[in-house]
Amino acid sequence: MTPDRPPSAPTAAGLEAVSCPLCGPAPGAALQHRFSPFAVVACRGCGLKFLSPRLPEAEVLKLYQAESYYQAGGVGPGYDDYRQARANWHKTFEARLAAIRAWQPAGRALDVGCGPGYFMEVAARQGYEVWGVDVSDYGRRLARASFGDRVLAGTLEQAPLEPQSFDLLTAFDTFEHLYTPLSFLSKARDLLRPGGLLVITTPNARSWLARVSGRRWVSFKIPEHVFFWSPSTIRRALGDQYRIVTIESAGQYTSVEFLVRRSLGLRGAAASRLQAVAGRLGQVNVWMDNGSMTVMAQRI
Ligand SMILES: [Zn+2]
Questions:
Q1: Gap from CA of 193 to ligand 1 centroid (Å)
Q2: pLDDT for residue 241
């Protein structure tokens, strides 16, 4: 399949400068890394890193509509061979669900940013009643093939769902994309029953991988990642609406071929040649610390 041409890079015009959602504009923010015309800055008050200036939200939402976002093959924004990596996502989500089951072993689950529905598939197999919500038409179309009307369009805040109707709310590799993370957390609290579990996996700006990688950190996916949380900043964001259960480093299963391709920065024809040469080695899958963290918190 030939992917659509990935969306082109934006110009400097029309970007928006933002201040820390936890502290407001008063403390100011210090430049960390330039990704012209964007920049990653750190709040001088709490240390939260975020993209400023950034695209307006309506612009970045457009990026997620196309299949090319999921199949960009390492060129521009997108998730590398997302569908081909389905088996690895299943294994990754099975491992994450094993940790979740210790705290919330059953019930109604809502996956925010469900994409093609890989976590939904794993959770359904384990007996949860699963729902999903996603801003991407493409991701939703795939998830709806299995889950029909339980896959809702739009953001969590827009989803027409009953208050206090879920036991589990998950957001994997989604929170860093959110323009209004505090309103997300308060909507999630509305939807969870008291004692219900919120699970967020997001890049950890204080992780070993982030610190040794500097500007080249794989989670600086610009312009679509707009916040780079850490255990201390996400703790502040959760505030007194949640009781934090655990904050642990997250990982994922990935193929050796993918790791080599990424670390060498191979694209296009060079990447295809590696895939051909790697052969069976490319099929070997490994567990990788990806510099992300998983936060589990109970709704109070
Ligand atoms: Zn701050």
A1: 29
A2: 95
- List, as ranges, residues with CB under 5 A of the ion ligand 1: 20, 22-23, 43, 45-46, 48
Q: What is the pLDDT of residue 72?
A: 46
In angstroms, what is the span from residue 50 Cα to ligand 1's centroid?
10
Cα 237 to ligand 1 centroid, rounded to whole Å: 10
Residue 238 CA to ligand 1 centre (angstroms) = 14
Ligand 1 center to 17 CA (angstroms): 15
**295 CA distance to ligand 1 middle (Å):** 19
Please report the pLDDT score of residue 221 as a whole number.
Answer: 94
**pTM for this model (two decimals):** 0.85
Q: Are 107 and 128 in contact (CB under 8 A)?
A: yes
Of the candidate ranges 22-26, 44-48, 87-91, 203-207, the one whose mean pLDDT is the lowest: 87-91
Averaged pLDDT score across all residues of the chain: 87
